[in-house]
Automatic annotation (TrEMBL), chain A:
The active site is at 245 (cysteine persulfide intermediate). The gene is soxA. This is SoxAX cytochrome complex subunit A. InterPro entries: Cyt_c-like_dom, Cyt_c-like_dom_sf, SoxA. It comes from the Bacteria. The lineage of its organism: Bacteria, Pseudomonadati, Pseudomonadota, Alphaproteobacteria, Rhodobacterales.
UniProtKB/TrEMBL annotation, chain B:
The lineage of its organism: Bacteria, Pseudomonadati, Pseudomonadota, Alphaproteobacteria, Rhodobacterales. Residues 10-102 form the Sulphur oxidation protein SoxZ domain. It comes from Thalassovita mangrovi. This is Thiosulfate oxidation carrier complex protein SoxZ. Gene3D superfamilies: Immunoglobulins. It comes from the Bacteria.
TrEMBL record, chain C:
Keywords: Signal. The lineage of its organism: Bacteria, Pseudomonadati, Pseudomonadota, Alphaproteobacteria, Rhodobacterales. This is Thiosulfate oxidation carrier protein SoxY. Residues 34-136 form the Ig-like SoxY domain. It comes from Thalassovita mangrovi. The gene is soxY. It comes from the Bacteria. Pfam families: SoxY.
């Protein structure tokens, strides 16, 4: 556990009951009694000097919220995974194909995929996240219409693809042809924006573990995305969350599905290299 | 029938005669409270699951009346006695008149 | 902060009222309780109500009720626009007179459970749940 000077003051103030929660806890996460999730890990080399340890946002939630993620039946995010299972098997488009026509059993064929995305696609010559890859399949192989970015079925499918990799270590490549985009994402992470003049790092690197109003600041890891937020009872993807964060700095936000947010998604994903894929998770 | 409503039940497949077992149920439903307003300021009408029942071989285990304060995707966990082999029957009643059902057989070892 | 004599008096009265009525509910909740009990006396104890002291989000608050020997348990959120939450009726094959669910709370308030016992008597339990407002976009 790591305290910064400000958090020491916050903890002192809060150790007088009422809000007994302040820093990340030491609980451990096992899903369905069998999938062990690495929720704390040594920070990847590229974070040297910034963070020593990386932590899933799960540690920053209270016990009741944490418990909802420990059993798929209790996790409302799994309802969306079930929706996507139906879509996986459903033929759509002019070619008469479903996802299953090419990829078979999702639990087999997609195992490990979420762990390495966003990822450089050599044939296309671009970095792609999962939703971009879905639409490549839909338009080029299935002859179906592309899903809008963060449209219901796209988020559901992202949750399904994440769910079959749970427990596997995030391992996003940051070298080679993806490097330029990763550098751009890194610059965005540390650039202050908005009337509040906050960067991602202001909250999620310099102040994680501290309170922001009545809530806890996490490290802003996205290993557990998509998340089912109790607040709005639906799934949120990394780029959807980025939009909320940037808006909260009182800045004009980038658009989910834009190249800017793709760069940020790649960079933030790489900050979680070593944590387990955990989505769909449950957060407040 | 409201869209996307799907019941889920977690129940043991086997039990000893007379054993007390734990049941969990979840149904995907928005549980529109009737308190919210849409963008033009008018109230979004209430649309909820208003009753949930569980029976085993025709005998009642639990009968729940739900109000709009039950969260989206209503979740219940409770216990039942399994006196003999048979079937749990779960029924959800929607404001719109729809009835959703699920059943889980239980073997007695 | 400065208190006028009137404020101080009002505060004192409020505190006195709280002391006399630790179990304060609004009129709608009182009506719901009266409808359930038919105006009968409600004893303290015999009911277990488990709810978080602090809920991270009022939209989904886990609660459990238990009252051994109860035929029904009424669950109320006294600070909601309408206080009703759920009524659990236990049948002959209930394994226990207990149930867990997830509820919506409009803000910090008392959650109340009233059990109707098999002999027709009533018992209650109450628990204050603080509902926090999230930091970001909450």
């Amino acid at each position: 556990m790591k305290f910064k000077p400000m958090s020491a003051i916050a903890v002192l103030a809060l150790s007088v009951p009422t809000l007994g929660m302040a820093d990340a806890d030491d609980d451990s996460l096992v899903i369905n009694g069998e999938i062990e999730i690495v929720t704390k890990a040594p920070a990847p080399a590229h974070l040297e000097g910034a963070l020593d340890e990386i932590m899933s946002g799960w540690h920053f939630r209270d016990d009741a919220t944490q418990a909802m993620e420990m059993d798929d039946f209790d996790n409302p995010g799994m309802l969306f995974v079930e929706n996507a299972m139906g879509v996986w098997e459903t033929v759509d488009g002019s070619e008469g194909k479903s996802c299953a026509s090419c990829h078979g059993d999702v639990a087999e064929s997609m195992k490990g995929v979420k762990a390495v995305y966003p990822k450089w696609n050599e044939a296309a010559g671009e970095v792609r996240n999962l939703q971009m890859q879905f639409n490549d399949c839909r338009t080029n192989r299935m002859g179906a219409e592309a899903w809008g970015y963060d449209a219901g079925p796209a988020k559901d499918m992202e949750a399904l693809i994440a769910s079959v990799s749970r427990g596997m270590p995030v391992n996003v490549a940051i070298d080679g042809p993806a490097k330029a985009m990763w550098e751009k994402g890194k610059e965005m992470f540390y650039t202050r924006t908005g009337q509040l003049d906050l960067s991602c790092a202001s909250c999620h690197e310099q102040n994680y573990g501290n309170m922001i109003r009545a809530d806890h600041l996490s490290q802003g890891q996205i290993n557990a995305f998509p998340v089912y937020r109790l607040k709005d009872t639906k799934l949120t993807t990394p780029q959807g969350r980025f939009k909320g964060c940037v808006r909260d700095t009182r800045a004009e936000t980038y658009k989910p599905g834009s190249e800017d947010f793709l760069a940020l998604e790649l960079y933030v994903a790489s900050r979680g290299n070593g944590l387990s894929v955990e989505g769909p998770s449950v957060r407040n | 029938m409201a869209e996307g409503v799907k019941p889920r039940v977690k129940a043991p497949k086997k039990a000893a005669a007379g054993e007390t077992v734990t049941l969990k149920t979840l149904i995907s439903h928005k549980m529109e409270s009737g308190q919210r307003k849409n963008k033009d300021g008018s109230i979004i009408p209430r649309s909820i699951i208003n009753r949930f029942t569980c029976e085993f071989n025709g005998k009642s285990v639990i009968d729940v009346t739900l109000e709009p304060a039950i969260s989206t995707n209503p979740y219940f966990e409770f216990e039942a006695i399994v006196p003999e082999a048979g079937e749990f029957k779960f029924t959800w009643y929607d404001d719109d008149g729809s009835v959703y059902e699920d059943a889980k057989p239980v073997e007695v070892a | 902060m400065e208190f006028s004599r009137r404020d101080t008096l009002a505060l004192g009265l409020g505190a006195a009222a709280l002391t006399v009525l630790p179990f304060q509910v609004n009129a709608a909740a009182e009506d719901a309780i009266a409808a359930f009990t038919g105006g009968a006396d409600v004893a303290e104890g015999g009911v277990n109500l488990t709810a978080p002291e602090i809920a991270e989000n009022g939209n989904t608050v886990p609660v459990s009720v238990e009252a051994a020997g109860a035929s029904e348990i009424l669950l109320l959120a006294t600070g909601n626009p309408t206080p009703g939450v759920a009524t659990f009726k236990f049948g002959e094959l209930a394994g226990s007179q207990s149930a867990s669910t997830r509820i919506r709370l409009a803000g910090t308030q008392d959650v109340v459970a009233i059990a109707k016992m098999a002999d027709g008597s009533f018992a209650k339990a109450a628990s204050t749940v603080k509902v926090t407002i999230g930091g970001c976009g909450g």
